Amino acid sequence: MQTTFKNLLYVLTRYKLATATNLLGLSFAFVLFILIWIHVNHEYSFDTSIPDRERIFQLENMRNDGIWEANFSRPQLERFIAASPGIEAAAVTNNLVYSSVRLGVSTSRDVDGKSYMEQVERITVGYTKVFGFEMVTGNTDCLTHPDGILISESMARKFFGDDNPVGKPLYFSEFGSTEATDIYGLHFEPVYIVGGVYRDFPENTRLKNALYLPIMENEMMEDWNTGPYYCYLLMSSPETVSDMVNQYVTDSKEFLKNFAIEDIRLRPLTDLYFGQQVRADAAPVGDKLRTNMLFFIAILIIGIAMVNYINLSIALAPIRTKSITVQKVLGSSDMTLRKYLVLESLVITVLAFCIALLFVFLLSDIQWVADMLGHQLDLFSNWKILAKTLFIVLVCGILAGMYPAFYITSFPPVMALNKSFTLSDRAKNTRKLLIGFQFVISITLVVGSLFIFLQNKYIGNVDLGFDKDHIMEVRLSVGAALNKSELFKARLLENPDISGVAFSEFKFVSDESRSFIGYNYEGQHSYMSWLGVSSHFPELMNMKMIAGRYFRPSDEAPDNNQPVCILSESAARDIVSHFTSGEINDLSDIVGTNILDNNAPVQIVGVFEDVHYESLYKKMRPLGLWVSAENHYRRTVPERYSYVKIAGGDPRAAIEHIRKVAEELIPGYPVDIHFFDSVLDELYYKSQKQGALVTVLCLLAVFLSMVGVFGLVIFELQGREKEIAVRKIFGSTVRQILWMLNSSFLRVTLVCFVISIPIAYYGVNVWLQSFAYKTPVYLWVFVVALLIITLLTSLTVTFQSYRAATANPASKLGH
What we know:
Elements: H1 2-14, H2 16-44, E1 56-63, E2 68-69, H3 74-83, E3 87-93, E4 102-105, E5 116-123, H4 125-130, E6 135-138, E7 148-152, H5 153-160, E8 169-171, E9 181-183, E10 186-188, E11 191-198, E12 211-214, E13 230-235, H6 241-251, H7 253-257, E14 261-268, H8 288-315, H9 317-329, H10 334-363, H11 367-373, H12 383-408, H13 413-418, H14 425-461, E15 471-475, H15 478-483, H16 485-492, E16 498-504, E17 516-521, E18 524-533, H17 537-540, E19 545-548, E20 564-568, H18 569-576, E21 594-597, E22 600-608, E23 623-627, E24 641-646, H19 652-665, E25 672-675, H20 676-683, H21 685-729, H22 734-768, H23 779-806, H24 809-813
Parallel strand pairs: 5-12, 7-11, 18-23, 20-22
Antiparallel strand pairs: 1-2, 1-13, 1-14, 3-13, 4-5, 6-11, 8-11, 9-10, 15-24, 15-25, 16-24, 17-18, 19-22, 20-23, 21-22
Helix pairs in contact: 2-8, 2-10, 2-12, 2-21, 8-12, 8-14, 8-21, 10-12, 14-21, 14-22, 14-23, 21-22, 21-23, 22-23
């Protein structure tokens, strides 16, 4: 063992450049492999922390337009639950945690007291039973009282420190001075009493660490048409679910038809995250194929690093065989020497793994790494991944050391002593095959990175159908939206840098849960997304009208009892599609007519060009805007999102004015001001971070490939020194010699490019499939990838070969 250690120490000190290069390449590869494996495990572990998840199902219905959705009216849900055997518990929720609902809450009535912005969810007691809430203190019975509330363990520490929070009040600063508030059609108390504290849920679950408020037993039980509720069921026997649902649908066919429901299903919780997201459900979903591809790339990176190690080890063969031969002469057998060489490889890979662990540990505290992964980097909870990676490292170290060990010890002593090394054709082909493997992966990743850049650029340049420049989104408290919105607007317009202010119920552009309505137009039933806005909103956003007019201030006047709306082009075409050309000839023909929303006539006063009010992941869906004003049709939600248009120039003065006015009108409330561009960026957060991860993998793959080329060039030059000298004597120029040395690598690059095209094309298409609107797959991107790898390869070969090409031939032929 002592001899082995001395040999290893000799190798580390004698071949410093090769050892450092191997350690650096292997360490980076292991770092990225660990990070990606933790990320993949995070994706595949989604919802696995939920007890009895195999027995939990989400209730969904298919409307008469053939689209599945997850929302129901309250009595529809309760009817299904009462008529269906085998249900152990039912979880009813409003799904608010997947919408824009974050409310201000405080432990004090004092308006100057600290206010926290927290997600809010409204649930029945059954929700805690279905999802197995682990209570730290108190109990869930508080949800049987209108003013009961559950908070998470982390919230309890934030709000109350080390004090027991049970029995203590929480005040919704969101509602200002209002005694009680109806918002989103739901009743909120001005003060709640903490009845229990639950253990925080992990990041990778649909359950959020929110303030949980009660849904009372009789809430909205008389309203069969409004569907803001979602339901999960804990089944005693999952095997009977299909028969139970089929029986209910058969027995309730006429009843369901009255509500335009064609079918009902129970979808397993285990299928939701990697499944198709249904309409009106904004619970997080993952992309299984993309996740698998990311892990596959990480494995290939390990493969490239191992190939690199082999290449550099063989490149040292001409130098090391002399010492190996001496050891043979002194009595060491080939088998003993090979064991030493494999052990050397094993120690180097383990050392690289240890360095990688140190890097990962340091990276775990860096926020941009967590942002890139989309979650925190928790090494303690992922210790099994680290252990499995170590096992892979050990296997790779042994395998990567075996080929060089057999190769280096295979040279005859005479060749070793004379330094007359040449590669057989088989050996050359093997080396080029290894380099080719690296090149194929590198070219593929370069293509992928370029298309990620192009897609991000495409998203930024897509015409969204409205003006996003110089627009700021400012969230108001519910109390301010109810009582001070006009004052807020007037105060903002005092500043000459602000040219307009308008309001909306919800975020205008978002992938969160949205309000959809089913409506009738002359007997034809259709659906659209439905958003209440102030009268000036369409003009401020510069929506382009196709027919009819914008809203007018008179449309939101207190004495106007006629609700009006303007429809997107898609919504208007959906209406027109149900009629022949003789009945409706043009989109403008529907202007002035009415749609019926629960038998309430809403007049269509205009049609505007389609706008992308959701991310480009989704196909554009029909949209309707209606004038939302106090005591008007459907006005159950105050317009708490204001959109402020900056006149131009430096926006800092305008932002400061907005902040000052907000702090004066809503003291103690966290002011939330965003440029509209940053709001749009949030929609593509996960995709952009995964793209950044692929780019990092691409850079590492290219780096390792060039190191592999570097090693192969070193070896070839050692075997061709005399050939180069002879060529120079016979008149070859430096340029010709460099071309000779480059040409074989360039041929390999070209072959690898041809092989990588279908692989890269498939991978790019898989990634782009997640976008409904995407950049074209340009041929020139593949050519650019080829040029990048070719240029880097040529520079690497030329850099290492230049000294040999310019050396004095006599110095080489004299040996």
